[in-house]
Amino acid sequence: MEYEIKRDYYLEQLVKRKNNGLIKIITGIRRCGKSFLLRTLFKKHLLESGVDESHIIEMAFDLFDNIDYREPRKFYPWAKEQLKDDGKYYFLLDEVQLLGEFVSVLNGLADKKNCDVYVTGSNARFLSKDIATEFGGRGDEVHMYPLSFSEFMSVYDGNRYDGWNEYVTYGGIPLIVLAETEEQKMAMLDNLFKETYVRDIVKRNKIRSIGEMEMLLDVLSSAIGALTNPNKLQKTFKSVYKSKITATTITKYIEYLEDAFLIEEARRYDIKGKSYIGTPLKYYFMDMGLRNSRINFRQMEVTHLMENVIYNELKMRSFSVDVGNLTTVERGKDGKPVKKQLEVDFICNKGFKKYYIQSAYMLGTKEKLAQEIRPFLKINDSFKKVIITSDTPKPFYSEEGILMMNVYDFLLNADSLEL
Question: Can you give the pTM of this predicted structure?
């Protein structure tokens, strides 16, 4: 397949930030398309908007040809030499975490009035956590994900139902999406995980017990959408693997996986108490293909896969996403009050907007519908409540004022929550 996958949302984010005086930092999991966005799509935009090619300065620090330029005392003088006149110069720097003293170097470039700096990086510890602090207030992050379902369907040759099955199985890493056969996709995913992600994490964090890290990945892959915490995981290690790993080590390993953008944590929020609950919490994978590859494409429970895809889509749409917890007191069969914990899959916030969302693969029966609606009826505010299913024919509002829609309409329409 010869395709150029459009990443219009992220391109627009870069275009909006053009010449704002800040260092534009594109972060995201390895192989999600950051380099392509910066050095193909954004470069094309610059050329089409009249920028002379001699004013676009590129450097890919992960290429062997450029290995000497990882030394700041070599790169910085070279960068300054490229400034031949007072015109605006655009620096497109790829995998900048490999450049020594990169914060000082980038701040030095950005300080020049005719320099506009754009960089990519694959490691959260270097680039996405506390960017403002790291760059003295001069960092401006654009976080990139693997292909959304909508982006995936733009190059998929088939209907959305077959596309969905492919997407939740093999994920949205562009390299995998463009592979021809299922065998290729599976082999490439397996190779990517072992040779890129795991090796990168082990090397970067100097991990000695690779086996424990791999076991943790297996456990987390099997538990997407389930509430857990390091203490609970430690008990699993002890009973299943007879391992003496500590909860502290598990916490550290989880941080490494988050730093590599392989997983994200969703914290629990007490809806009535309006506060966060410490633990347990949920972990979601940033790409379903990587998750499925990790467990050899077993445990393909579509309910959990759909929940994970919805979480990722909400994050791609720049929502902050929490798991909702609701404590209610109801009468038991004996008439005595019983405290019960109800869950709302996702609470999404962006500015003044807020949504409560339930992911329910199949509603099927009145009992199942009542179960999904029940937490919503206990929430005393007017924010929109949504149930996303696979079997709703088209969006509609229930008698209770709840928006019902199918997962395809939700994923393929960026404004679906506004219906």
Answer: 0.92
